[in-house]
Specification:
There is one protein chain. 69% of the residues lie in helices and 0% in strands. It has 10 helices and no strands. Helix 3 (54-67) runs antiparallel to helix 4 (73-89) and helix 6 (111-123) packs antiparallel against helix 7 (127-137). The longest helix is centred in the middle third of the chain and has 17 residues, at 73-89. The radius of gyration is 22 Å and the shape is globular.
Amino acid sequence: GCLMSAIMEADQIGPHTAPCERCVYAIQAELNRPRDPVEEHVALGDGYHQRGQFELALDHYRAARFSATSLQPSQAAALLNRHGAALLSLERIAVGELFIRKALELAPDFGPALFNLAVVQMCAGDQDLALATLDRWRPTVADPRAQHGRAARFFLEMTDDLGSAVHELRSYQAAGGDDPHLIGELERLDGPD
């Protein structure tokens, strides 16, 4: 049988089990496909960022920016925002803010940059401005689970407004959100029914 069509244990692989001709062709085509260095650096940067390796993420976001020959404004904004977010994660708030603001110059309604700007504003102690920016961010997120989950994390991590956190957590759960951490936070803050 074809190795690509079924998961096989290593001890079952033998002379009669190999990728079929169609799968070999698909693998060859993928290996010969031209690579986009920007896309690859962004993917690597995102992977490092998710694992908390922010310096390595920055290296790849920087490489992506220098590899880019031409980007649409939305693509450039996404790349600048990623760079800014990695800097925020390293607590380089002022420099991160510059990248985030550059992203918003290119795409004023770019949701991820608006969210990160709200984080910057909270770090600067301007809660009213941060909440206004968060309100500008909300319509950019179509999925209510994503919107309420992200807003809940914002209130939990950036503010002492537990009432708003509980409201967002309840809305998240009502929208079908099931992240164990967020549901646990709701149970902890909401107490027993």
